[in-house]
What we know:
This protein has about 150 residues and is of the alpha+beta class. The protein has helices at about 10-20, 90-95, 95-105, and strands spanning about 45-50, 55-60, 65-70, 75-85, 115-120, 125-130, 135-140. The termini are far apart.
Amino acid sequence: MRNPRFSPTFTASAMAFIVLCASADAQAQLGGAMPLAANSTGAAPKTLLNGALRLRTSTDAGNTTINEYATNTGQIIAYAWEGPTMPNLRALLGKYADSYLNGAAALPPDGNLHASRVVRADVVVESGGPMRGYVGRAWLPAALPPGVTADDIR
């Protein structure tokens, strides 16, 4: 007999909540502005794809590498991460965090406890990996510049 307290839907919702509450040092959020100056780790943004994107890489307090992507006007449109801890998705997603949580709660159960893909009209979040090997990315699909695809977010 299934234990209703640990149904796949409950598990997906709990995983989304844990991901959003994990600790990290987010400097900005999706939709916000990437400063042109170097960040606290001394990294200045690099340009990619013939100037269509700016990339700034930092490491959070949990030693997770976070790549922050912005348009050439400075609007942050994506994050990608990889490391031993989950970044603070609530801080990274900002005003898109609630949309992500609602999407995660509505996912049909698939039995996969280590990966999720939440697609909303305003934000897409992919996250997964075993403990101490987390990877993921989040982006604003409508904000991707011409010629830039989700495959460019790594």
